[in-house]
Amino acid sequence: MLKIVPPPIFRHAGELSPRFDTHDPRDEAFAEDEIIVDLRECEFIYPAAALWCVTFLSLVRLRGSACRLLVPKNMGVCVHLKSIDVFDHLLELGVNVDTQGIPERDPGNTVLPVTRFETTNDAENLVNRTFDSLQAGNFAAGNLTQIVTELFAELALNAAQHSESPVGSFACVQFYEYETGSRFTCTVADGGIGILASLHRNPVLRNRVFYDWDALSLAIRERISGTGDPHRGIGLYGVSEDVRAPGRALLIHSGLGSLEIREDLETDARRTRLFPGTLVTLRIPA
């Protein structure tokens, strides 16, 4: 049995213990018969962390392992996860999730709940749903409707076209209000081959990138693509350029590499904890 215990403020998979890096459910060597993800002490779970739960456990269930998610003791966190359909996805997979006593809540600040997609057509439908939700909802989106939709579209289409994920991809768009302001968060995750393996599809790049963090540094450059097509490789580069604006931020996490870009800072791509596949999360102030 493998038990994974995230920190109380669970932002993303990079905060997990390094001992889990060798437990990649995409690998043929993965042999755990039971996985427990213990969220009981979590006081806040960010979208990137919620999508890690869904992606990781989807891959584990595909391998035939038993899974259990221990829900947070904090009822507010439970209600939030339920309202964005995290529990529904896991229950459909056959994950043991005890949702007893967790009430329903109107997901008023959810633009798009956690939604699975596979094809580019699926991704385009999600983009249209997101656009309609932004227009119809009380999200103070205003002139941000177009930019949120366009950036989300790039992330979703990128996952559909390049991830080769056996469990599909997952997306979520949320609106948060704080005393200091408000923001949109767009998150897309998959359990696919990762950016490094995707770039290795291009023979020109195969001998230039050796690690996940190397791949991330290249992936945000213009016209870098695993396809070798000079007209491709615009999407992730375009998103990384668009976040260099006040208050915006981008986190890309693929395999053992991560890269963060904010308006005033681009960190060097670095080694981190494992995300089995690729996750991209984008923050846009409202």
Characteristic terms for this protein:
286 residues, alpha/beta, 4-stranded parallel beta sheet, 28% strand, globular
Taken as a percent bin, the fraction of beta residues is 25-35%
Described by strand count, sense and barrel closure, the largest sheet is: 6 strands, antiparallel
- The string of secondary-structure elements, in order, is EEEEHEHHEEHHEEHHHHEEE
User: What quaternary form is this?
Assistant: single chain
Gyration radius from CA atoms, angstroms? 18 Å
How would you sum up the global shape? Answer: globular
Class computed from helices, strands and strand pairing? alpha/beta
pLDDT < 50 runs, ≥5 residues: 226-234
Number of strands: 12
**Total domain count:** 1
Query: Helicity level, as a percent range?
Result: 25-40%
* Largest beta sheet: strand ordering: 7-8-9-12-10-11
Total helical segments: 9
Average pLDDT number: 90
Distance between the termini: 44 Å
